[in-house]
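Lab notes, practical 5.
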Amino acid sequence: MGTVTSKDGTKIAYDRTGKGPALILVLGALNSRKSGAKLAKLLAARFTVISYDRRGRGDSTDTAPYSPQCEVEDIAALIGAVGEPVCLYGHSSGGALALEVAIKLSKKIGKLAIYEVPYALDDTARKAANEYYKTLKKLLAAGRKDDAVALFVRSVGVSDKQIQSMKRMPMWKGLEKLAPTLAYDSEVLGKGHALPAARLSRITIPTLVMHGGAGASSMRDAARAISEAIPQAQLRTLARQTHGVSPKVLTPVLEEFFL
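Output from the prediction step:
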């Protein structure tokens, strides 16, 4: 494990494996760098893979106040350590962060790939996202991390019965530790998780936008909207995949695009 120091003094922990062009993995909600270990191992055959703990997760520290710009600076610090340009792969809300990095650090990024960034495309979805964020902040302010995690997993389609089963598993305590960062993921997606089409139009680097063929229609529609907003972006459907995309399926797609 290595560490870099971000602009505000936050220590960002990362693992570096493999040999080849630098590729940074940017994961989504309730994930640490360990969550991408299988993908990193597969990609390491052809890339120098950087798996890192986003601030407030795993072995990384945190510094208040939070802003998405801080996470952009975290990735800038990683790029400073591994050299530029780098490739970026972002999953879910991590994809929203990767898109922001592509806008603000465009000269440091060679290519960008994202998978199922959950932007809200209509008023109903945006209203639900706003209500989710307000409730989440109240729960976290009250120290109710257990309920905050439950709120999130319920929002992505997990039933109450499944949540009760999850709470009996050892992994639930680990998710509770990550609960404060759920607010970060919501803020990275922006107010109402609305598609920032005007900002995305500023992305000029080669971009691959992916979604799962067996996933939610909302993810498919969001992927299409993102690809239409980014000039010359490629849109690709990964057959039989859901939001939890298989590393074995994803790896050759990323290799083909990045190399």
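Observations recorded by the TA: The two ends are 26 Å apart (CA to CA). The mean pLDDT is 97.
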